[in-house]
Amino acid sequence: MSASNKLSTAVKALCYLATVFPEVRSSSEIAEAIGVNASKLRQILSQLIKSEIVGSTKGASGGFFVAQDFTSLSLFEIYAALEERKVMEFDVADAKHASDKSTQHYNTYFNNFFGDIQKQIEERMQAVKLEQIKEATDHAKK
Question: Is the pTM of this model over 0.90?
Answer without folding.
Answer: no
